[in-house]
Amino acid sequence: MRGEPPIPKQVNRQAAQWFAERESGDMTAEDEARLRQWLASDPQHALAFERAAAVWQSMDAPMLAPAPRPVRRNPRRWAQPTRNHRRQWIGGAIAASLALFIVLENDISTHLRADAMTERGEIREIPLPDGSTAMLNTGSAISFAPDGRTVTLLKGEAAFRVAPDPANPFSVIAGNGTSTALGTRFLVRQIGDGARVTVTEHSVRVALKRQSAVLLEGEAIEYDADSLDGSRPASVADADAWTRGRMRIVNRPLGEVVAELGRYHRGYIGVIGDHLANRPVSGTFDVRDPVGSIDVIQRTLGIRSTRLTDRVILLHS
Fold it and tell me: Each residue of 94-109: pLDDT tens digit?
């Protein structure tokens, strides 16, 4: 997909929505005519639709309906297809999944800046030039100075094990904040325009503008673009479970658990309904097998799922 002309985000969203509508399998003749008109109205529409189909196929998802032929019309506006309840479930899940992966495919800026990256679902340890290591969680990226003592977390999450060198502090930049190792091991996870720092061994100094705090082993802190929160206790076993391919959960809402597992899944996992999304979940799950983990949750809670292969999974009562 690289090397092709850029497509506006709004057009990509419309293409993802149209593709999802078609893949839901319930388009009416009127819907199909509107899609053909939309495809014919602008060459970028057809290109965006083709890209959406390519992304869907790259996820090993089935093509459920034949692609429509554009008609030579030039409507003034894009008409939103109508939906019934089932189509909202299936079509919405497909659209969300496609929108996510179109963003990932077009994350060129991060690719250009990164010295190391992981794909969705990949966890990998990266040796740094100074002898330290950075273990990157799913969908993460870092860049680092030639000596390896200054690392920038560009996206995602990483666990750092620091090689001692008192004369050259080891620091990780994430957003506007900087975490400087006073010990050997800590985690940094990007959250919006800030980050969460968790210390798993010894201590770390976290600085944001004129604010700073020293965290001890078993403590965590969060910050956004402008403010640094207070430190709080953190379970080291839970925080770094992902480095061993696990996710430990204690009484967290199903919606949050599914969102976390979704970070490791090349597809879309969703929960239908606020009541179900708020049901508490506890357990230890294998992030290397998010679909298997979802199966365990489904059996444990006695709930159902609707699936388009294992790429798009909707949990519901």
Answer: 665 555 555 555 566 6
